[in-house]
Amino acid sequence: MTAEDSGRTAIERFRDCPWYFDLVLTYLMMLDMTGDRISEAIHAIRPDIPVVVMTASPYSIAGKAEAAGICRVLSKPLTRSELGEALRGVSQSL
User: Fold this and answer.
1) Higher pLDDT, 59 or 10
2) SS3 assignment for 9-54
3) Mean pLDDT, the chain, as a whole number?
4) CA 50 from centroid of its chain's CA atoms
5) Does pLDDT of 94 surpass 80?
């Protein structure tokens, strides 16, 4: 697992070694980028990777998620169990 607090830094790290990652989990609202922009940048490097976005306002990404290549939008708050189940579901569908 790798964690970054900046969308730009996360994209740079992903660009350095795109095959290291199995999936990308991000927030919709980051300090420097939105989750849909992060997903677009990640998919420009590696189109097949699943991107999951967490948000407190799922309606705010409605219509943008599919176009940005986001495979799942999760509504916060989530329990660890709910997050784990959602990520396992995404991984199993690969």
Assistant:
1) 10
2) HHHHHHHHCHHHCCCEEEECECCCCEHHHHHHHHHHHCCCCCEEEE
3) 92
4) 7
5) no
Give a yes or no: residue 2 inside a domain: no
**How do strand 51-55 and strand 70-75 relate by DSSP bridges?**
parallel
Residue 30 CB neighbour total at 10 angstroms: 17
Assigned token pair, 67: 């176009």
d(CA 93, CA 72): 12
Counting beta carbons within 10 angstroms of the beta carbon of residue 93, is it exposed (0 to 12), middle (13 to 18) or buried (19 or more)? exposed
Count: domains in the chain:
1
Reduced to 3 states (helix: H, G, I; strand: E, B; else coil), residue 73 is: strand
Query: For the domain that residue 43 is a member of, what is the CATH number?
Result: 3.40.50.2300
